[in-house]
Amino acid sequence: MPVTSEIFKAHKQDAKVFIETGSYVGDGIQAAVEAGFETIYSIEFYDNRVGRCRARFKDVACVKVIQGNSGEALAELLKHINEPILFWLDAHYDAYVPESDNPKILTEPQPVLQELEAIKNHSIKTHTILIDDRRIFIGDSPVWHNTVESQIVDKLKEINPEYEITNIDSACFPKDIILAKITTKGANWLYDWYGHNITSQHGEDGVIEKIFQVIKQLNKVCVEFDAMNGIVWKNTYNLIMNHGWRSVQIEMRDDYFKDLIKTYKDKHVACIKEVVLPTNLERLLTQSNVPQDFDLLSIDVDGIDYELFESIKTFKPQVILLECDLPHENLIKAVALAKTKGYELIAVTGVNAIFVKRDLYPLFEIKNNSVKNYKVWTESRQFKFGLELQ
Ligand SMILES: C[S@@+](CC[C@H](N)C(=O)[O-])C[C@H]1O[C@@H](n2cnc3c(N)ncnc32)[C@H](O)[C@@H]1O
What secondary structure letter does DSSP report for 14? Predict the structure, then answer.
């Protein structure tokens, strides 16, 4: 049987943060320290156990022991973490808690489903999750019977239907750990796992951020037209304001243009008042000194989007976001055009298709990007990320 630190090491992937529920005497914490995590949180209900673990790791700065009921405490903790985590869910009723030692006794159901609900509400849907003591979820002991393995598996699939769920050996028992891990990526992974709005409409801000974590930014230059005031339902505002990108923003209406200038007054943004047409787009980009391989082009003009995309010949942005008024016939047409221009579809968000240059496509590890694999837009999806700008 593997020792626990080896199990943590084997499933660490790119996680620097480790979270355990149920500290007990701190052996899980010790294994996480040995596995090399940079930050280790452990949540324990009983005061005396919290005290013992805090004393044991008082000289280890990366270890934080939190007192609380694990479901609630985990939900609170996750509000402050925005990176991959390895979870070790190991809090459960303890038949050996002597009442005299612990005036508070847990009477609630197993916390694991509540813990998984907290993980489900986190913005990242790809954390690796280890759930210890699988045998108590498949046994018939009355102490444990209130949660069964199938409920846990259903909850894991709610977090991410792409989880591969297997049972692996723990340090003490065969096949006693439930392991949920992402091994393959479906067509919708960027949208499903990373979609969120800052000013975008259908999760594009989160998708775009993730895209530029996957590929190298060449020049941090983006172009958007029908820029309006630069904010409402815009896909480049976040890059400019929060990530220091430079930009060309084009808007034709007087009133919007005045607001656009105000929005970006202290930023590296060239605001152009112009009607963008297939006949002038390349000229406008050239006159604005946009590099030919600029990072992102967002085409969202509610009309001649396809024609504008078609008109781009000499410029080769790394990423193109194209509004194509789904349903699928328009998406199919846009994908066909993108292919002739050397681009591949990597995401569909609301009414937008997002393409990358073909040589970058393998970096996204999408098994099959045929149009039929992308979720069709339905009205209810509009509410997935909330309508912050209403
Ligand atoms: C099996 S032990 C944990 C062992 C430890 N994780 C390790 O790897 O050595 C279970 C621990 O979970 C704690 N626990 C049970 N229910 C809990 C809850 N709802 N919230 C926090 N801790 C809980 C118990 O007090 C006990 O210390």
Answer: T
DSSP 210-267: HHHHHS--SS-EEEEES-TTS-TT-SSHHHHHHH--EEEEEE--HHHHHHHHHHTTTS
Query: Euclidean distance between the first and final Cα of the chain, in Å?
Result: 56
Q: Which residue is listed with tokens 């005396």?
A: 48
- Looking only at the bridges linking them, the beta strands covering 296-299 and 221-225 are parallel
Q: Which of 46, 47, 114, 173 to mutate to test the pocket of ligand 1 (most atoms within 8 A of CB)?
A: 46
The encoded tokens of residue 179 equal 């392991």
pLDDT one-digit tens code per residue, 59-113: 999 999 999 999 999 999 999 998 899 999 999 866 555 555 554 555 566 899 9
Cβ(49) to ligand 1 under 6 A?
yes
* Encoded amino acid at 293, one letter: D
Q: Is the CB of 344 under 6 A from ligand 1?
A: no
Residues in the chain: 390
Chain segment 374-386, per-residue pLDDT in tens: 876 654 444 444 4
CB of 69 closer than 6 A to ligand 1? Answer: yes
Ligand 1 contact, 45 CB (< 6 A): yes
Structural domains of the chain in order of their starting residue, each with its CATH number: 4-182 (3.40.50.150), 189-383 (3.40.50.150)
Q: Which atom of ligand 1 is nearest to the CA of 22?
A: 12
Is 61 exposed, middle or buried (CB count within 10 Å of its CB: 0-12, 13-18, 19+)?
exposed
Pocket test for ligand 1, best of 21, 34, 93, 102 (most atoms within 8 A of CB): 21
Answer whether 317's CB lies under 8 Å from 211's CB.
no
Does residue 374 line the site of ligand 1, with CB under 6 A? Answer: no
